[in-house]
Amino acid sequence: MDRAAGERRPLEGTRRWWWVALVLTFGVATCSDVPTEQAAPEPTGEPAVVLGPPAGEVDAGGGTVAVDVDVASPGPDPTAPPYPDHDAVGPPPPDEPDPRSFTVAATGDLLIHSPVWGSAAGFAAGSGEDGYDFRPMFEQVAPVLEAADLSVCHLEVPLSPDSQALSGFPLFNAPWQLAPAVADAGYDTCSTASNHSVDQGSQGVTATLDILDDAGLAHAGTARSAEEAETPRLHDADGVTVGHVAATYGLNGLPLPQPWMVDMLDVEAITANADQARAAGAEFVIASLHWGVEYRREPTDEQRRVAEELLSQEAVDLIVGHHAHVVQPIERVDDRVVVYGLGNFLSNQSAACCVPATQDGIIALIEVAEVAPDEFAVDEVHAVPTWVDRNDGHRIVDVLTALEHEPEGWRREQLQASLQRTREALDPGDGNDPSSLVSAEDAADR
């Protein structure tokens, strides 16, 4: 495109003198007595690269050269845009951050009867130690708990600060050594609201929480003061802030020492606690609920009502249930998930006192994904079937892995029966079971 005389281009300073040199060079070439012959460049199929903006045309003998020279004004033009004009496009938009995700492992009741702490005493004695060692009981399932971003236990009973005056049903008091074993197994926090929370009075609540603190375990559902009761329980799960609330349906008729000492199961109160956790930064909230009817595999109408009310209000994202001592279904409610009952994880219950299914439990392995910025939902649920082997030190058995190696005999029959009960409990045939069964080994590798 031709320019009017004196019109300036945004190519200033020394670049303009380069063009002057080019013109003079071509002028010298045309005055020479040696003929100069220039071949036209062969087409390359590539777009031409223009190093300088064309302006007027100067005859250089072998053709014309586009130049734009303003020798009178070599300085920069303050009105011209910068050259090259990258600002016209702007910087590229920043990359979208990858969606966040995390896993939760939740387990059933830790119900420590006297035969259970008797096995722990045997493990300690076998190592030449005094006291109680519960760690061997968790060996088969610890890899799952350690691998999860947040592992949640349910401590149903008070703990004794000196492992003295121990007692089982109906007023429990278990050895303090349970807490470090739970921490060593990979747990991060425990719900402590249950019908046995005040079996040892207010002193028992305080002692239990002190012991959990010493073991490095967080807790929800009971408190030592009104201030602690009002403090949201928050956890970091692979970069996501998770809130934890807990509540129980009752206290077996025992009086509540202080109104703030144990969180009771009330939809409005639980929702308020969950809202408080969100206000403090929680992006996902778990509610551990001690509810239902003992030894009943099907959720009660009350359980379903509470689950629907809590999950429909969107303050709570996930419910994990306890107290029934048997595995209950896992269902979706309004695109959220409720695990009605996780069964017993460690206890002495069996068909001898109760029903065979009281030896069964599951590790609910819940995968949570970010579905929109700062919005999370349960993506997948897996269940690791477990069985308490009362004949082998109350070890918690990874059922699927054990069946791969167990020879024919009584123990294999027990494991097969346990697996069948768990399958039936999780999938009652209504098509609303979002879970799949996996072994502890496979779950740890996920």
Question: What this model shows, in words?
Answer:
With 446 residues, the chain is an alpha/beta fold. It folds into two domains: 75 residues, no CATH class; 345 residues, 4-Layer Sandwich (Purple Acid Phosphatase, chain A, domain 2). 27% of the residues lie in helices and 24% in strands. The chain has eleven helices and 19 strands. Strands 3, 4, 7, 8, 15, 16, 17, 18 and 19 form a nine-stranded mixed sheet that branches. A six-stranded mixed sheet has the order 9-10-11-12-14-13. A hairpin with a 2-residue loop joins β16 and β17. α9 packs antiparallel against α10. The N terminus is likely disordered.
Within CATH, the superfamily of the largest domain carries the name Metallo-dependent phosphatases
CATH topology name of the largest domain, in short, is Purple Acid Phosphatase, chain A, domain 2
Mind telling me the CATH class of the largest domain? Answer: Alpha Beta
Total count of domains: 2
The helical percent reads: 25-40%
Oligomer: single chain
Largest sheet: 9 strands, mixed
Count up the helices: 11
